[in-house]
Structure to design on (470 residues):
């Protein structure tokens, strides 16, 4: 694979991550009021712990595509047994990662449909579902064409979309602190719901919220998924990860603080999907709304691109490692996983039918907990088994970091997994939890089929060799 990306291009593609807060502002506020700001602070801190570990792994294994790549390499081991448990675990982690990023396309297509329905009078009588479906078809097709010749094209689009999304988001949020719109009492007087108790049930709910927060606030590890395409992985990967993390500090903490402090808890709960419009209206008047609408649409397209590229790379990596059928890793002449992109797009057009972004997010957070937990265990394992190289030849996390990573791994599996399962059942019923579990378990037959496919291919190659020798 050609190494054509620098860290700024990798950052441009990953800049959809700081905008993942948008569907969660209202949901988190409805659950824990002003304490939602604390959740984002804790989650961002966790993100830096995890991504320092992932940055080291990505530079130790520069040919692997981020989380789905190096976890499969670490757990593959030296055995020739294709059906060994460790290979299954590595592949299952990559599958969880794919499931975490994949539904991003549906979530933000639904939000785009919701905004179009509410903001443009001509669409008021058009069902949100059809607007979301049409938005998905147009955006998915457009992004596949943009990235047809490689992620460099997506990086250029990322630069443009970042200017039209992150810059206005920063301006609108910061302006509330200087226009007199922000009131700290909206936070301090409404820190937690009156019926909140620090009992076991509420702590499990809090773990579930942290799992959902992680899905958004820790996801800048996607900058490492392009490791095989960076010109200088050992320098480019840490830079892209660190700078994207700085952006996340602002969006997840400051934006949530600005929304709660300016709008108040009740106003956010009343408009859970579009609090940024209200924030823009209060802080900047009618012109603020005119700024916010294109900002929101640009940010959602940027996030959809980040999700499409991340999930397609994960699927390609699994197919190349023999953990998914080979057809799913098929690339075009530019080594772009075009088959994966098309399948992911079709799958998300089906997901749009669920209609509720929070339902889809909660289900996919199950996959992200699995992926992070196993990946962090892989980091701890690699600290003893990884190839030894000179310290100046790769990015190295601070000494003892493997123990912090191990603690975060245990937090993901089993604690976050239990918490997010409970959130799914409480808020969205068994449907959401079952969707998440079914998609995760779907990996089992696909993995078994891929192994049978590999076995048949080896038999055919052996027979051809015998025939040639005769």
């Amino acid at each position: 694979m050609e190494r054509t990306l620098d860290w700024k291009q990798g950052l441009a593609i990953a800049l959809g991550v700081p905008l993942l807060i948008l569907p969660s502002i209202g949901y988190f506020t409805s659950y824990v009021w002003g304490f939602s700001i604390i959740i984002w602070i804790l989650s961002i801190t966790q993100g830096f712990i995890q991504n320092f570990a992932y940055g080291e792994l990505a530079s130790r294994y520069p040919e692997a595509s981020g989380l789905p790549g190096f976890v499969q390499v670490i757990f593959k081991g030296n055995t020739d047994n294709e059906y060994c448990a460790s290979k299954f675990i590595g592949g299952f982690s990559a599958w969880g990662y794919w499931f975490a990023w994949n539904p991003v396309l549906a979530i933000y297509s639904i939000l785009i449909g919701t905004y179009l329905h509410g903001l443009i009078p001509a669409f008021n009588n058009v069902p949100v579902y059809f607007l979301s479906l049409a938005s998905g078809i147009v955006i998915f097709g457009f992004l596949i064409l943009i990235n047809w010749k490689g992620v460099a094209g997506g990086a250029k689009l990322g630069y443009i979309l970042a200017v039209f999304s992150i810059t206005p988001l920063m301006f609108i949020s910061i302006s509330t602190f200087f226009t007199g719109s922000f009131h700290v009492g909206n936070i301090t007087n409404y820190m937690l719901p009156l019926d909140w108790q620090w009992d076991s049930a509420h702590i499990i709910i809090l773990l579930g919220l942290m799992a959902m927060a992680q899905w958004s606030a820790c996801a800048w590890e996607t900058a490492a998924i392009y490791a095989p395409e960076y010109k200088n992985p050992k320098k480019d990967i840490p830079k892209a990860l660190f700078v994207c993390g700085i952006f996340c500090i602002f969006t997840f903490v400051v934006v949530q603080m600005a929304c709660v402090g300016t709008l108040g808890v009740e106003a956010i709960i009343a408009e859970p999907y579009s609090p940024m419009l209200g924030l823009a209206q209060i802080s900047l008047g009618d012109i603020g709304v005119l700024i916010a609408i294109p900002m929101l649409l640009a940010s959602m397209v940027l996030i959809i691109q980040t999700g499409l590229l991340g999930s397609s790379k994960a699927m390609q990596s699994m197919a190349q490692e023999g953990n998914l059928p080979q057809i799913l890793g098929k690339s075009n002449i530019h080594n772009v996983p075009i088959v994966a992109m098309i399948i992911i797009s079709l799958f998300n057009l089906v997901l749009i039918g669920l209609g509720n972004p929070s339902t889809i997010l909660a289900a996919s957070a199950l996959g992200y907990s699995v992926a992070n937990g196993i990946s962090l265990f892989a980091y701890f394992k690699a600290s003893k088994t990884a190839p030894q190289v000179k310290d100046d030849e790769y990015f190295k996390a601070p000494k003892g970091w493997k123990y912090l990573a191990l603690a975060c791994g245990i937090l993901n599996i089993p604690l976050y997994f239990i918490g997010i399962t409970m959130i799914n059942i409480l808020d969205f019923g068994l449907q959401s939890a079952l969707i998440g579990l079914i998609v995760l378990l779907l990996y089992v037959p696909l993995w078994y089929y891929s192994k049978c496919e590999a076995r048949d291919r080896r038999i055919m190659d052996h027979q051809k060799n015998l025939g040639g020798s005769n």
The chain has 18 helices and no strands. The longest helix spans residues 401-441. The radius of gyration is 22 Å. Residues 69 and 393 are 20 Å apart (CA to CA).
